[in-house]
From TrEMBL:
Entry-linked NCBIfam families: PRK06105.1
Protein name, UniProt field: 4-aminobutyrate--pyruvate transaminase
PANTHER family: ADENOSYLMETHIONINE-8-AMINO-7-OXONONANOATE AMINOTRANSFERASE (PTHR42684)
Sequence similarity: Belongs to the class-III pyridoxal-phosphate-dependent aminotransferase family.
Amino acid sequence: MTVLTNMQTRDVEALLHPYTNAVTLRQTGAHVIESGEGVYVTDADGKRYIEGMAGLWCCGLGFGDAELVDAAKQQLDKLPYYHLFGGRSHEPAIELAERIKDLMPSMARVFYQSSGSEANETQIKLAWYYNNARGRPEKKKIISRVRGYHGVSIVSASLTGLPYNHKSFDLPVDRIHHTSNPHHWREAHEGESERDFSARLAAELEEMILAEGPDTVAAFIAEPVMGAGGVIVPPEGYFEAIMPVLHKYDVLCIADEVICGFARTGEWFGHQKLNMQPTSVSMAKQLTGGYAPLSAVAINQDMADAIEAHSGEIGIFGHGFTYGGHPMGCAVGVAALDIYKRRNILGHVQSIEAGFQRRIRSYADHPLVGEARGIGLLGALELSPGGKAMFDQPGKVGARLAAELVKHGVILRAIGDTLAFCPPMTITEDELEEMFAPIETALDATHHWAKAEGMM
Ligand code: PMP
């Protein structure tokens, strides 16, 4: 058994960790990270790692970016806190909203929160408020997807379609339904093409809307590419098949761009890359490069008109967070958007994505890998004991592979038995090479271990 360091002991005695098995953590101790520079972080023992997940899909500009730090400092000196309640405002919030609108011309207004969960919580409240404003009080149900990830607050966790976010939390709440996920490799019928699979999923969505009653369905929410559910890229023609169904029944389309936004998929937004036409968009994470907690919801003109008029009728728009549109967060957001443009981060992603995807796919034939997939600078290796079979004890092999990679100085994230990649978008070719260098060795070692343990 590992002897915990002083810091690790303080950690387990003081913290309840998110997404962690608290019993196992008492034996292993936490991995304490102390500093970061570029695509690297350094732990409390002074060992350096490539952060292949950009933290939690957020540090798209890497660590230690002086411009982002200066933007935060300057704003803290000038006005460390103000809010947008009751008609107050401040320039960083206005400026950032203008820049978001410039990037998404179909959006008319921006509303701020601090996290992705709060953004999606806002989305659902806006969908309800909008339909009340439109005189359709019955139109309130929301359709999300199995394996979608939209956060952990009560409604956003209900939208999330993963069992461990519901189990023992008494979720999901009423009015939220889940339709099938678009994971072609795992969910398609034998021999079913991507296009046929997309058409079938759109037909299933339509059946669900009809079964629930179109007059009761308010919105459909989807990540353009599913992230935390396992980096699931939609099959060919998916949103092209889904969109007409939403239009037919007057169902709002919410794009959750919390991971996909700001160049990650090789376009400014995932919905642009994947032909999704949202009525509203959630953003967070790379909005500030992860340097400040800030999220934004952008809504189109039709929603803005209805919501603004309704607030006039009932006297107030009764929604808002103390830290929504925090001046420091917004100033960092403005600086981040500036950097994305000035340093041509989108162009950089477009120039390295092919090499990144080629490397990911080069492991497709490894005996531990079921499917290798990705888009832009998102990638995944879905592990399997053979073909599409799943391991009897889900998550063990994935965790072992991630731990193996840590030994080699690479931090990646195992989502169950899928290894996810989401490096800082500033990563160079050499750094990519360094990140991929130990993958084969780690896959081999994990494969031998899994066989020795009788898991495959
Ligand atoms: N939506 C998506 C697509 C996400 O990936 C996440 C977080 N991984 C969230 C929402 C929730 O964001 P937060 O953890 O900031 O609440």
